[in-house]
Amino acid sequence: SSGINAEYGGNSLAVLALFYTASTGCIGKLRDKDDIWNDIGGGAVTGGLYKSTKGIGTFSKFVGIGAIGGLLLNLANGTFEQGSSYASETISETYEDLFERR
User: Fold this and answer.
1) What does the alpha-carbon distance between residue 19 and residue 47 come to, in Å, rounded to a whole number?
2) How deeply is 57 buried, as exposed, middle or buried, from its count of CB atoms within 10 A (0-12, 13-18, 19+)?
3) What's 51's DSSP letter?
4) Which of these, 6, 8, 19, lies nearest to 62 by C-alpha position?
């Protein structure tokens, strides 16, 4: 019984990882940028697809959860690869990009 549940959970996680990776890559190609917004958008798309058949309320909630998940994945991966200052630097750069006057 636990083997069947583990197999189902593993397959579900693999599909979510595939959606996340594909959507993050597509967003990056469309925007022609490699920044944190690709991960946030990829997480939002993945979250929305994950629960898209459960109604608009659930869809909206999982878009938000997915966006937060994408942000956290980016910060965790960047911190692991580039060191402890990655998260604070990335948040500062994103804040400046978001509120920069053009």
Assistant:
1) 9
2) exposed
3) T
4) 19
For residues 31 and 38, give the distance between their C-alpha atoms in angstroms, rounded to a whole number: 8
pTM of the model: 0.79
CA distances from 93 to 17, 33, 34, 49, 99 (A): 26, 14, 13, 29, 10
CA distance 73 to 82: 14
CB 90 within 8 A of CB 74: yes
Of the candidates 66, 72, 68, the one whose C-alpha atom is nearest the C-alpha of residue 87 is 72
Q: How deeply is 8 buried, as exposed, middle or buried, from its count of CB atoms within 10 A (0-12, 13-18, 19+)? A: exposed
Residue 68 structure tokens:
């937060």
Structure token digits, residue 56: 């608009």
| Identity of the amino acid at 64 | G
Q: pLDDT tens for residues 33-58?
A: 888 999 999 999 999 998 888 889 99
Contact 86/79 with Cβ under 8 angstroms? yes
